[in-house]
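Q: I'm building a small set of examples for a reading group on sequence design. Run inverse folding on the following structure and report the sequence directly after it, with nothing in between.
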């Protein structure tokens, strides 16, 4: 059979249909590849959003746990006068009251301005820095136990925390027999009133 014997008019419709089918099939393959790439990109975007939301949720959950654990301690320290502003007036009122309760012959004090404090042991860095105000005390004592009772009264009644930086005792009375209601001993002490606050 020779090519000249083929009736192309009969095959023309089939060839056109084949070309159209191939074109549509190719377009569908290209469109499906494009759609797949688009969907994969959308999936990756949604997965990133999901992971970000999960991390945020876990972070909020952890923050909530930390707040539940540490907020009561923070509030207790704040109520005790360790965090925030100094309670100088309350310290002085407590000193006067303790002096009267113990019937100390004399008690004098002075407080220096608050300054940054470098503790002996390094503290981890935080938003709150340690500060200290030095209070110099001189007291006339009837008996040496009056000094311990003075510190005990301060510790129990004053808002804040203090440490005893140094302290010395010397005899003031006449002879070896202590006199009642007289300053038989002289105490000279330095207290450091400690506070934590955010630096200005």
């Amino acid at each position: 059979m020779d090519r000249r014997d083929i009736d192309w008019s009969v095959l023309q419709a089939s060839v056109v249909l084949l070309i159209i089918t191939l074109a549509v099939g190719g377009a569908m393959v290209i469109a499906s590849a494009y759609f797949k790439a688009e969907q994969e990109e959308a999936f990756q975007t949604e997965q990133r959003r999901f992971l970000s939301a999960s991390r945020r949720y876990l972070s909020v959950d952890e923050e909530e746990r930390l707040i539940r654990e540490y907020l009561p301690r923070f509030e207790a320290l704040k109520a005790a006068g360790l965090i925030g502003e100094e309670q100088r007036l309350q310290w002085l009122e407590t000193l006067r009251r303790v002096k009267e309760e113990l019937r100390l012959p004399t008690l004098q004090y002075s407080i220096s301005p608050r300054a940054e404090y470098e503790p002996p042991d390094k503290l981890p860095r935080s938003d709150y820095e340690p500060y200290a105000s030095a209070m110099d005390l001189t007291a006339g004592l009837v008996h040496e136990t009056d000094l311990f009772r003075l510190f005990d009264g301060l510790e129990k009644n004053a808002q804040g925390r203090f440490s005893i930086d140094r302290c010395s005792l010397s005899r003031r009375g006449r002879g070896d027999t202590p006199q009642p209601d007289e300053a038989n001993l002289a105490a000279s002490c330095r207290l450091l009133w400690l506070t934590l606050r955010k630096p200005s």
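The chain has two domains: 9-79, 88-197.
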